[in-house]
Specification:
The protein has 73 residues and is mostly helical. It has a single domain (4-64), classed as 434 Repressor (Amino-terminal Domain). The chain contains four helices and no strands. The longest helix has 20 residues, at 4-23.
Length: 73
């Protein structure tokens, strides 16, 4: 079971991904193709409902040109 803090972190990361994707003019489908995942996976990452591996976070950071900085609760 996820704690409220863990859910908050997932939502923060999801918001960062969504904002960076939109800032680069990418659709969820386009980002999914670049990552070799499904659009549903991207939707899950952005909503904070899908867990990300460290590898996926690293690939997202490189593709979107972002750094993940998590604010403590």
């Amino acid at each position: 079971m996820m704690t409220p803090h863990q859910d908050d972190i997932k939502q923060q990361i999801g918001a960062m991904i969504r904002e960076a994707r939109k800032a680069r003019g990418l659709t969820q489908v386009e980002l999914a193709e670049k990552l070799s995942v499904t659009r549903t996976a991207i939707q899950g990452y952005e909503s904070g409902k899908q867990n990300l591996t460290i590898d996926t976070m690293q690939r997202l950071a490189i593709l979107l040109g972002i750094t993940f900085i998590i604010k403590p609760a």
